[in-house]
């Protein structure tokens, strides 16, 4: 079945001419009583296809941050719809390129838009293909940066293993504050030689626990269950005022 030859209005690709084109199409096809519904549908389908491709470009979501994936999706969407319009014999021209270029620029995130403005010459008229080339390079740069940043962070951590171990290891043996040897202070021979007054002054000076003589906590937080061997009170035996009268070999923490 040969459809009647009707001079259909042509859409130039300019966004501001879309409403005029749509109105002309409705007058020529939709309001034409000489066409059957099937014939109108055939012509209408072509118009709807054109409209859908134009709308797909206009409806691209604005990018809110730098993203290689979002940039590539934007490029693919615009190029795909331009190719589809070309198949429908709506070819690109300088004017349509300018409109599409400005639409794409409005969809870019702030930093990508700024980089593009710095990249172009103020004396040249921007070209759509040049914009596509810039966005593709920009996406590649963002991908490269996202791949190298975790590696640099890992490298920095590996270069400071001692610092990392210091932060997480809570069970490092504390050296004795008197002789600097690797043993608890209550086992130090230097401490055993002191009298109770000297021991008390030492504990006060270094803010040690009165119970176990640890420097890591206070008396209220001490978990030791040992009591003074002399008076059975809650203090270290070495701090008992009358301990000089007992045999030091029997003194226990």
TrEMBL record:
InterPro entries registered for this protein in UniProt: DUF1759
Family matches, as PANTHER family: GAG-LIKE PROTEIN, PHD-TYPE DOMAIN-CONTAINING PROTEIN
Protein name listed in UniProt: Uncharacterized protein
Pfam families hit by this protein: DUF1759
Organism of provenance: Parasteatoda tepidariorum (Common house spider)
Superkingdom of this protein's organism: Eukaryota
